[in-house]
Amino acid sequence: MPILRNIGLLARCLPAGPQGEIHPIPRAALAWNEGVIRWIGSDRDIPSEYRDWPTDDAGGRLVIPGLVDSHTHLAFGGWRADEFEQRLRGRTYLEIATAGGGIGRTVAQTRATPTRELVGRCRGFLTEMARLGVTTVEAKSGYGLSVEEELRILEIYRDLSGGSQRLVPTLLAAHTIPTQFRANRDDYVRLVIEEIVPRAARGGLARFCDVFVEESAFTLAEGRAILGAGLAHGLRPKIHADQLSDGGGAALAAEVGAASADHLEYVSESGIGAMARAGVVAVSLPFATLYLGARPMPARRCIEAGVPVAVATDFNPGSAPSYHLPVAMTLACTLQRMTPAEVLKGATIIAARAIGLEEEVGSLEEGKSADFALIDADSVEQWLYHLRPNACVKAVARGREIASGPGSPSQ
Amino acid sequence: MPILRNIGLLARCLPAGPQGEIHPIPRAALAWNEGVIRWIGSDRDIPSEYRDWPTDDAGGRLVIPGLVDSHTHLAFGGWRADEFEQRLRGRTYLEIATAGGGIGRTVAQTRATPTRELVGRCRGFLTEMARLGVTTVEAKSGYGLSVEEELRILEIYRDLSGGSQRLVPTLLAAHTIPTQFRANRDDYVRLVIEEIVPRAARGGLARFCDVFVEESAFTLAEGRAILGAGLAHGLRPKIHADQLSDGGGAALAAEVGAASADHLEYVSESGIGAMARAGVVAVSLPFATLYLGARPMPARRCIEAGVPVAVATDFNPGSAPSYHLPVAMTLACTLQRMTPAEVLKGATIIAARAIGLEEEVGSLEEGKSADFALIDADSVEQWLYHLRPNACVKAVARGREIASGPGSPSQ
User: Fold this and answer.
1) What is the mean pLDDT of residues A161-179?
2) Where are the alpha helices (DSSP H) in B101-248?
3) In terms of domains, do A83 and A59 share one?
4) Which end of chain B, N or C, is surrounded by fewer C-beta atoms within 10 Å?
5) Which chain B residues touch A121 with a CB distance below 8 Å?
6) Which residues of A touch B89 (CB under 8 A)?
7) Summary mean pLDDT of chain A
8) Is B324 in Cβ contact with A389 (below 8 Å)?
9) How many Å lie between the alpha carbon of B232 and the closest alpha carbon of chain A?
10) What is the C-alpha to C-alpha distance for residues A74 and A323, in angstroms, rounded to an integer?
């Protein structure tokens, strides 16, 4: 039952209000016990019942809700640094995939990696993410692409879920058509619908069902069928939409009531309108924009149309080989013209909504999980503008410290 | 007299050869004493005289020359995070400057900051840069803009120069026309030429003289006169050239034999040709490109024309508020289409050439300074593609360890 005092600025990030409204409290204090926030307010107004709780000193720093990375492909074998170099030399993503690279190569490398090694890698990534202040992580399958391998990855996520950092598993069996099904893609779609989705759902191994709707991956009709099967088994839909071209993915997300549509570099005006009416969250992935040299997703148009915009890493070994969410947040400012306050809400409460956890995490409110990060900066603007290796000095999840260190000090 | 063994890959980065040729030695060893490299080669071929030297184990990691940040504005007071936010909302750099922001605001904040505090801030930044593997830093004045204040900043750099990390001071009195000289700019140019340059040179306080040639700063004629005065006093020229428009800065750099022309987002084909013929280094500053939403400098065209391209941070509180050189290097890949090998040479031997230190640092060769960094990656491509908070686990300058830590592990 500690109380954190001498907080220079506490950003509550309540669900209400516009995306740029972070509900700040200057000179604040925060009390929690049993993993739950009990009281938040001005340091001058601490109620008597909390005054003798053990005190920690925030040193005048910034406190934010624990960051939520709402889109990662956490479990994968190998890397693809050589493809990064080839893309810089002018080869396209599709040329590389056709020549045996791309997602298909990571599928082969993942299948060849023992479970214990995959678990160790994921654990390493999660530890590094915690140091950056990330307390909740969505993690997709999608480098298995067979019944056994997709379930193996989801089981890895289940086994990693015991800690204080939250892990939200998403089934992405529909990541791409596996090589051996290229000639008879319908068979793979049927396998996903009739076997993989039901078994993942029955085992309680996934909360969401995701589909990559794109010319090189799944059609709108296939996506609709797979997401329908997911819904029938209790898995909420998510869509990789309109990343390389406007394929109508945003409209499909609205039609099926998806929690989020992700990427959206090429989303149309009508797609944005449909998402706004249906309450779909847009998940922006600025690392993929940067690494693929793509055009940025239209974050400003989304926000103006009433679509909340989350910011996530898309961490994967191809188009977004970084788990550094704060750098992705700075990129969301510079590439997508979001303000630091909008980006902070996009990596906390809006990200929580994108993965269905908005009742538990993503904002600092009495009754919610005590998930927060202590940032060495005096404002959100200063934090995200002064890009440093790591400005987080402490991360707390379910009331327990999960990471701490000197961070990169503000000067 | 230690010897570092079990190096997975050692990138020598010799001055010769194309920009993408980093002269790698796999399974290498590196011996040094008295701050100087004595032997480099394959771990199997260590000569008998080094075999009983105290051994350190590189753990199979990558060893690179100590990074050289060849363009920073290290000493400044205050920050300008609020202007970052205003630019994201659509205000232009020039609008903000006209309203009392921009360089002029940092000048006022710097003048108001006590010397001891400025020294402390610089020391903090240098420590963080060392952790990233940066062993040499160029540092410009330019937030003083009066005789006393410009000399005060250069004296701060002199006082910081005692350590193992090298600091190269540049006089940038011609950063912008100070407010009180707006009506009579010739008087300020005369002050720079007749007072500031001679006094900085006489005191041995600067090696380079730099001018910001741009519509909003100094004309070509003013730049030519100031750089000429610098040359007459033994200061080598550098130019902030063609950042916001093609102002002929690259051609002027060639004309006066500048060590480097920096920025170059809008450099013309003829400017590139002139630089190639004169042997001027192009210093690319991808953070400024990112933060100002500008078009990237044409690195590929420069390299093809025979102009070596350095990569630096431009660290300053306005357009490039980050000292994270490895992130700037990844941005040079993604924004400027340079390969990781080209970028590594651009932040080592080519950067050293941009600041006149190519005989001392920037490559790993017998007889040169023992400046190197140990990176947790198995290749340069893996390091720069897998963007992490900090992949450097040890930095050595003049043979002495100046930073070490766990880094962000490779998986």
Assistant:
1) 96
2) 102-111, 115-131, 147-160, 185-191, 197-202, 220-232
3) no
4) N
5) 411
6) 339
7) 96
8) yes
9) 38
10) 9
A&B contacts, CB < 8 Å:
113
Q: Domain check: are B29 and B85 in the same one?
A: no
| Interval A291-309: pLDDT, tens | 999 999 999 999 999 999 9
The pair of structure tokens assigned to A77 is 């074998």
The position carrying tokens 């990571």 is: A106
pLDDT 10s digits, B295-330: 999 999 999 999 999 999 999 999 999 999 999 999
- The verdict on A9 and A33 lying in the same domain is yes
Contacts of A85 in chain B (CB under 8 A): 339-340, 381, 385
Residues B273, B220, single domain; the answer is yes
Question: Who contacts B360 (Cβ-Cβ below 8 Å, separation ≥6)?
Answer: B166, B352, B368, B369
pLDDT of residue A218: 97
**Entry pTM:** 0.98
Q: Residue B278 and residue B272: Cα distance in Å, rounded? A: 10
The 10s digit of each residue's pLDDT in A100-122 is 899 999 999 999 999 999 999 99
Q: Is residue B173 one of the residues assigned to a domain?
A: yes
B348 and B299: one domain? yes
Same domain, A331 and A379: no
Q: Is residue B20 part of a domain?
A: yes
Is residue A24 within 8 Å of residue A11, measured between CB atoms?
yes
Q: Tell me how long chain A is.
A: 411
Contacts of B390 in chain A (CB under 8 A): 389-390
Domains: count for chain A: 2
Q: Following CA atoms A357, A358, A359, A365 in sequence, which dihedral angle do they give, to the nearest 10 degrees?
A: 130
Secondary structure letter of residue A296 according to DSSP: P
Same domain, A40 and A124: no
Q: How far apart are the CA of B389 and the nearest CA of chain A, in angstroms?
A: 4
Of A89, A331, A381, the CB nearest to B85: A381
A322–B387: do the CB atoms touch at under 8 Å? yes
**What is the average pLDDT score of chain B?**
96
Beta strand segments in A278-371, E: 281-284, 309-311
